[in-house]
Design brief:
The chain has 393 residues and is an alpha/beta fold. It has 14 helices and twelve strands. Helices cover 41% and strands 17% of the residues.
């Protein structure tokens, strides 16, 4: 009996190694990498129509589905979501408007309430990998974003190129261009000044959010938004694949991370690097040199098995070094946390680093996983804190 079992075990191991070798080979190709990193072909809303937001749990005409056109003729599918109290105040008129996809969003009451209200705030939402604007925990996330001021905080969310109904194929610079286009629409078409715009990102969306924030702050003159809220961010793609396990159990390159030379060689094949540690440092340095205040909140759950929470701790360290007037080692910052962070018990902990120009907060929750956390009140509070800067409260 032992001999056949050994043969079967050896054969199974050989098959597993063979499949893993094939996977590694595929991961060196750009097209396969795009599918693995962005998962854009996984819709997760197959049996619902995005043009009927009511089927995702919204009120009639609380959401306006429309497209934002790019200069090259492409189109990004988007939702404009009204805060619920503002909706209540205008419910009768909204109920009598036609529902569904809108060709000319400027003609809608919802758009005019965003454009014409000097108190309106806008959270521009950059979602994570896979799915569409209506997938998974994104709908509760939209509610969390506007809950702190249900009369004035609107949400603008969109699908990147290659996702949902947006045209094209995803790649790093392409997603950045998409986000820039959407933010320019918010500023130029909807007329919302940067000081009333918050950039929100989750998972891969945190990389897009940092990139678009950096893009605008490096303009002349700098354009600084009210702030950014980044949920479950990562250091960069190389660091992510060194720790990432699909479905929490299937490793990609993490077994090879124990062989540094081999891992570094395979990392040279990474097409989209998404170096968030460098982007957050450049963004903060440029913001410190501007005349505007800024705020960044990093949020992560300890039980996130998609992106381990130490990615946020590393990003926070890079952010602090960009704010400080001298280099601070990771170990020194950890020692500082021991005396300065706020221990919230079962809710987690908070550490803040502040200058006279801005503040960066690291919020580590005990629980929340990778997606459930998006509907947590901690997101609402983060948005409220950033927008409160406008009124000086």
């Amino acid at each position: 009996m032992l001999h056949p079992l050994l043969k079967y075990s050896a054969l199974s191991a050989a098959v597993a190694v063979g499949f893993y070798a094939i996977l590694l080979g595929l991961l060196t190709t750009s097209s396969f990498q795009a599918h693995v990193v962005y998962l854009h072909k996984i819709q997760m809303t197959w049996f619902k129509d995005l043009d009927v937001p009511e089927s995702f749990g919204f009120l009639r005409n609380q959401v306006t589905p429309f497209s934002i056109r790019s200069p090259d003729g492409g189109a990004l599918y988007a939702w404009h979501i009204l805060p619920v109290e503002l909706y209540r105040q205008h419910e009768s008129t909204l109920l009598h408007e036609a529902s569904g996809f809108v060709q000319h969003v400027e003609s809608r009451l919802a758009f005019r309430m965003l454009r014409d209200n000097p108190e309106a705030r806008l959270a521009v939402h950059m979602h994570g990998a896979a799915g569409t604007v209506g997938s998974g925990y994104r709908v509760p996330n939209y509610r969390a974003l506007s809950a702190g001021d249900p009369q004035n905080i609107h949400v603008l969310t969109f699908d990147y190129r290659g996702f949902g109904r947006s045209q094209g194929t995803p790649y790093e610079q392409g997603l950045i261009m998409d986000a820039v286009l959407v933010v320019e629409w918010a500023m130029n078409t909807a007329g919302i000044p940067p000081s009333r715009i918050l950039i929100f990102g989750q998972s891969i969306g945190t990389a897009v959010a940092l990139a678009v924030s950096e893009h605008f702050v490096l303009q002349s003159p700098p354009i600084v938004f009210a702030g950014a809220v980044l949920v479950a961010p990562f250091v960069d793609v190389a660091s992510l694949v060194a720790t990432y396990r699909m479905a929490g159990s299937i490793p990609l390159l993490s077994p090879l991370a124990r062989f540094p030379e081999l891992f570094r060689y395979l990392s040279t094949y990474i097409r989209d690097s998404w170096s968030n540690k460098d982007r957050i440092a450049r963004y903060i340095r440029a913001s410190e040199d501007s005349e505007e205040r800024y705020g960044v909140t990093l949020i992560h759950a300890e039980d996130d098995w998609d992106i381990p929470y130490h990615h946020t701790e590393t990003l926070f360290w890079h952010a602090v070094n960009a704010m400080a007037d001298h280099d601070i080692s990771y170990e020194e910052l950890e020692l500082k946390k021991n005396t300065s962070k706020t221990d919230l018990g079962a809710a987690g902990s908070v550490m803040a680093w502040q200058t006279n120009k801005g503040i960066v907060r690291e919020e580590i929750l005990k629980t929340g996983l990778h997606d459930v956390i998006m509907g947590n009140p901690v997101v609402t509070l983060a948005v409220m804190r950033i927008f409160d800067q406008l009124s000086g409260t």
